[in-house]
Every structure is written in structure tokens, then in C-alpha cells.
Amino acid sequence: MSALKLRRVNASAHAAAQAIRRWRNADVDAGSGHPPGQSGYLCFRASGEGGEWQGLIDARDWLHRSLPGLRSLLSVECSLMNIAELFRAVPQPLLLEVEDLHYRQISDVDGVLPGQLPPQELPWLDTPRGRLWLTRLPPARAASRPLDADSWLSDLPLRLELMLGSSHLGHGIRLKAGDVLRIIQRSQRCYLGHQCLGAFTFTEQGIHMQSTATDAQSTADLDTDTDTDTDTDTDFDLGALPVRLEFLLATREIDLATLSQIIAGQLIPLADDAARHIEVRANGKPVARGELVQLQEQLAVEVLEVYRNGSPDGMPR
């Protein structure tokens, strides 16, 4: 794969683009660019439950928005250092609507002169107290919202396993037809994606599911040797189920004669645009098409199309 000429994706630029998309989805004006160099800025570090991030904000713009009546009372403009001291003293100097920038504490506040601004483009978003420029984004985190009924994950294939129990086979023993294997440790648990949904019992109509921990324990008491490491969760989160992603480079119909030549060392030809037609499968189901790219030292796939109800649906890049 290292011989492929892949387009390189800048990890920082990609993270910034994803952040801007999230902010815009939250109806916040956002973009990227260079901070204007007409006046001084305040740099600071913010920390909260989502991790740390760092930002810049125009010092005098922040002051006039935070204290709109102050300008008329001053005979001279506040110095950059005085504004920094006020920024430190205010309990909540920034009002932020986006969830990933919520903070509990702001520290390391300092003044930045126009000539000291970062040379690269920075992501920004507008706030009630001025435009905020991010010099370091918060760490990416998984979405915490519950799985919606119409989520694209809801129709992915999953393996449902009804586990009766287990036993142990001694070394050197070979199974043969006619053997009777005793289930020593009865569990009667139902698993979905390697997570326990609950216990089950047999009825005349079929199988009866019991999803609470209390009912599961009563089933576990069917045998004194029941495996105790099978706790159940009363609030099973479908959104927490593991989804296995697979990335398919190409498929090709082939006969046995050609296959024997490939095994012997022949090359498999690829289409010129094969790198732009990577099929993304979730639990074996095709869900998207993407382009194979180089992300730092790893291979990655940038999504070009997302399939909705089995048909391609162009996704904005």
C-alpha cells in the first residue's frame, strides 16, 4: 500500500473543518482565516469536562462587548495588560453556545501583540463577546446522544446469540459422533454485539426474555455452578453496540486458473480510480463510498458518499 500515490490529509486542517461543521450545525456563525492584526489579542487556556482547548479573542472588542458603557467613562483606552487582568477576574468571560467548548476554568491569560499572532489559518466562531479564534481544538469525543429510532445504525445486521452455557473439554480428548456433552455452567443469556441483553427462560410458546438484573439473577440460580460474571444492564444502550467497519478496495470475478497464477505471484490489476471507490461496510452492510488517503502515518478513508436506504446520497465534503 505504501507504493500507492495517495492524497495526504492534514490532520489539523481536517479537525478544524469538522469543528466548523459542528458549530454551523448548531446555528453558530463559524469559519476559518487569519485574525486581523489591527489590535492586540488575549490568549488563554480553557478546561472543562471535554478537555482543554486554547483560544484568542480581540482584547478591546471583548472589553467593549462585555462592558458596553465603559468606553464613554474612559479618557484613554485600557492597556492590553489591564484588559487581561479584567479577563482573569471575570467568572465567565466568554459566553459559548456550542457544547464542545463548554469550560469550567480559564487560565494562562496573556496579551498578544499583532506581530505575535499565529501565521496559519485558524478556525473561528462568533460569540456574544466577540469573535473567538481557536489555536488548539478540544479533543474529539464520541457523540453522547441516544440512538434515534430512524438512525442509520438501526438497520445494520447484528448477531443475536442465545447462549445456553458452557463447559470444559480436557486436553487430549477428541469429539466424535455420539458423544453427549454436558452443559456444566448454565447461563441462558441473550447477547447482542457481545453485550448482554438479559436472561431467557423456556416456555411452551418459545423463549421468554427477562431484561432486568433481578430476573436475570433468578435464571442464574437454575444451577449452582452458573457463571457469575454475566451481569446485565437494565438500561441497555443500543447506541453503545460495537459497529465493525470494513474498507473494501476492490472486487473481481476470478476463475481457479487465474487464481493459481495470482497465488504464484502475479499482480492483480486495479482501476486507475480504485482509490476513490473504497466501499465502507458497517457490520457487513455497504453504507458509504470514500477515497483512500494518507492521514499522518496511517491509511484512512475520506467519505465521499453516504448510502441512504441502499442508494447513494451525495454527502458534502
SS field, number of helical segments: 5
**Rg measurement, Å:** 29 Å
Regarding quaternary structure, what we see is single chain
Major sheet: 6 strands, mixed
Calculate the terminal CA-CA distance, rounded to whole Å. 25 Å
Average pLDDT score: 79
Domains counted in the coordinates: how many?
Answer: 3
DSSP, total strands: 16
What share of residues is helical? 10-25%
Order of helices and strands: EHEEEHHEEEEEEEHEHEEEE
* Structural class based on helices, strands and sheet pairing: alpha+beta
| Uncertain runs | 212-234
Could you say which overall geometry the principal axes of the C-alpha atoms support?
Answer: elongated
Strand content: 25-35%
List keywords for this structure.
317 residues; alpha+beta; Surface presentation of antigens (SPOA); six-stranded mixed β-sheet
